Amino acid sequence: MVGLLIGVTGLIAGLHYNAGRKAAIALASQHMRVLSERLVENHRLLSAESVMFVEVAAIADEFERPPPDQLASKIAYLKLAVDRAAHVDAAYVGYPNGDAVNVVHLGRSPRWRRVLDAPAAAAYAVRIVTIGSDGRRQAQWTLHDADMALLGTRPEVGRPYDPRTRPWYRLGTGRTDTASVPPYLFETTGELGMTVAKAHSTRPGIVFGVDVVLSTLSQFLDASQVTPGAITLVVGPQGDVLIRSGPAQVDVAPLLRRPLPLDTTSQLAIDGQSYLVSATSVDFDSLLKGSRVVVAAPLAELTRAADAALMRDLAIAAAILLTGVLLALILSGQIAKTLRRLTGEADSLKDLLLMPPVEVHSRISEISALSRAMTAARTAINGFGLYVPVEIVRRILDDGRFAGRSAARQEVTALFTDIAD
């Protein structure tokens, strides 16, 4: 009974643990796929908004002549670009002579605010760079509140800004399509981002650009992690990590060394720990086209609930097993006590000790039937002893010659008397 209890409880606990573990891994796999899809969709919207601005700007008449011509319209249009897209912190237009207009959303970029030492009320910063006919260069920042009221001015910070030296201008000049500079650290703020650029439709030397800050994707990933120890990577076409979220101390080289199966989950050892890994490709036309989104979560964290359930089940099984063992001992003790009494009855019958029959009572039907059979046998032998002396019967049984169905002829003397002793 104890062995049966151990086997049954162990089997139930094992099956429950395996079911819980599989369910946890399946749920985590689904969560990882959803996270990748949400990230890709988030980036799809990010790309669409950025591309839409530069494509519309490329046909705008306000930008055909350099500043200060229609400067207010230029600023209003660039401000609209940074207002409409939460991931864009700056919009530009650059001209072939070196003129430039730049609008920065200070409320979205604390680093720009620190660089320009902007007051708390400042919401936007506008940089205007003009090159006079005599070649003299003028550059200045103006600070504005949310209604674009002027709050003050700042001199140019850092090295003199010339759009013609910037990657986005060189990439976009003369192109009829929209181009994007791969992720890089912005020179002024040091933030990781990309720049989308496009040349004007009729003036290929005029180039528009928007800075897309990738930290918004990182923040999205940090807030959407599968588990606390999970890692999410956006890996570029060349195998370089563009965006990373999760514990910084984990070595992600195993995720980059070999191609991972796409749109499915697999297991991979990282730093001696088993991880569940999901990879999704960015195959639509966007800033990160050709990249992969890789999500890796420690199996130990994914199955933590199943492990806790296993320990709980084992504790319950141990309690049930202990109770079962105690009940088994009590029950077996009662059965053994009854059987010992029946064994004593059998021994007395063997020795032909014709004592009054004692019926043994038991809740087990087989033992009760055996007790009734022993009582009937004792009653029969006691009746037989009224006619044949017990000593003779005992001598015949002890001799052993009549154990089978045999007989022997011999002379005997029989005395019938009703006088005892």
Please tell me about this protein's structure.
The protein has 421 residues and is α+β, with helices and mostly antiparallel strands. The protein is 42% helix and 21% strand. It contains ten helices and 13 strands. The chain has helices at residues 2-57, 71-84, 110-116, 167-172, 215-223, 253-257, 299-302, 304-350, 365-384, 390-399; strands spanning 88-94, 100-105, 124-131, 137-144, 150-155, 179-185, 192-199, 207-213, 231-235, 241-245, 265-270, 273-281, 292-298. Strands 5-4-3-2-1-8-7-6 form an eight-stranded antiparallel beta sheet. The protein is rod-shaped. The two termini are 55 Å apart. The model has no long low-confidence stretch (mean pLDDT 79).
Labels describing this entry:
421 residues; five-stranded antiparallel beta sheet; alpha+beta
* Molecular shape: rod-shaped
The termini sit apart by: 55 Å
Counting DSSP E segments of at least 2 residues, the number of strands comes to 13
Q: Which quaternary structure do these chains form?
A: single chain
Main-sheet strand order equals 5-4-3-2-1-8-7-6
Name the helicity range: 40-55%
* Topology pattern, helix = H, strand = E: HHEEHEEEHEEEHEEHEEEHHHH
Measured by DSSP, the beta-strand proportion falls in 15-25%
- Give the radius of gyration: 47 Å
Q: How many DSSP H or I helices?
A: 10
Counting helices, strands and paired strands, the structural category is alpha+beta
Tell me about the largest β-sheet.
8 strands, antiparallel
Low-confidence stretches: none
